Amino acid sequence: MRIDLHTHSDRSDGTDPPADLVRAAVAAGLDVLAVTDHDTTGGWAAVEEARPAGLTVIRAAEFSTQDPLGGSPDGRPVSVHLLGYLFDADDPVIVAEHRRLQAARLRRGTAIVDKMVAAGVPITNDQVLTIAAGAPVGRPHIGRALVQAGVVSSVTEAFSGYLAGRGPYYVPKPDTDLATAVRMIAAAGGVSVLAHPRGRGERRVLTPERIEQLQRLGLSGLEVDHPDHDEAARDELRAIADDLGLITTGSSDYHGTNKTIRLGQETTAPAQLARIVAASSGVTPPLGPVP
Description:
With about 290 residues, this protein is an alpha/beta fold. The chain has helices spanning about 20-25, 45-50, 90-120, 125-130, 140-150, 155-160, 180-185, 210-215, 230-245, 270-280; strands at about 5, 30-35, 55-65, 80-85, 175, 190-195, 220-225, 245-250. It has ten helices and eight strands. α1 packs across α2 and α4 packs across α5. The mean pLDDT is about 95.
């Protein structure tokens, strides 16, 4: 049983349309797929329509959050990504917050491009909006515009320079407070799992003590097996999860051609998926059987 619980379509910052992502999952031999686009459930209907009988789909999203506790040296809150599974997509609080975040992403993307244009970088906001094609605008869309313009050879190269968090074109965005997002997902009948908690900047804030605090607010799990985690990080996270009784997941964080990561590169154990389903309210059940 092969289960991948963290993937992205072009409804956020992946490159595969939802139907193509479903077909790619089948070709990769997956039995269960979760589509976790950033701050949107806009791909859910297309995924459901494209789903073949042999593939189970877990409807989900990745919430962009920030945690002010133990913030960065310059005082900025730390960016933390939170996976929400099987929540009510019509919950009014989540709908309103997703709309706010999508508008904030557009303003931020426009500001980043404006900075680049002022510096003579040959891209435009219209080009980025065309690439986004209605999805919430993100830095990967700007990265693809930079590739199209011949400024960089890949989106990865764009993130190491032009789109770097400490670079000259960086613009912060007002993400959801982490504790608020945990409570929001629980109130909507869903299950929250911290995404790649030892990748990027998250390790600065997601101490065992902070994870325990979040658990008391409704956090259910940790993404342990992730391409950003080395063996030491995985061992540490598994020990924290065991100590607190948290669910553990494994996922590829697939983004199509934006990253050199394969679908199913990391997977979740069937028993852990069963725990996610059991912890949800049932308002948004899996599409298909769960082992």
